[in-house]
Design goal:
Blueprint (H helix, E strand, L loop, with lengths): L21 H18 L1 H11 L6 H4 L1 H14 L2 H13 L1 H25 L12 H6 L1
Length: about 140
Amino acid sequence: MMATPKPGPVQVNSRNPIPLSSSQETQVRELYYKRVRGYCADEIRDFASCALNRTISATWACRQQRLAMNNCMIAHASQQEQDAAREEWFATRDERRKEREAKEARKKEQEKFHRAWWGMPPLPEDEEPASTEAKR
């Protein structure tokens, strides 16, 4: 028999690896915006401090800071940054799943405590609370 090599981590084409749902695309977009804002934090801070306590006058009084902020954001808002944000989203997918599972376990423990505290009968192990059934 011939031994087959173990496959390594799957390399995913980040431009269009897997069709994502609308909420997943929103998460990727938020990650992308966060990355771009991180690069331009100084320019954003300068514009915000200039525009503080101004209304319409911020348009011309803070023009230099606004242009610097916009130029920075345009320079960093590229397809490469979108791809990097998508790759980061896929890389942290398992971590988010573990967090969801831990949150669900805490919720079940709290439900048990609540029922014991108020003297309610415990739920059978195979039955889920009605609130989770309604979400499905």
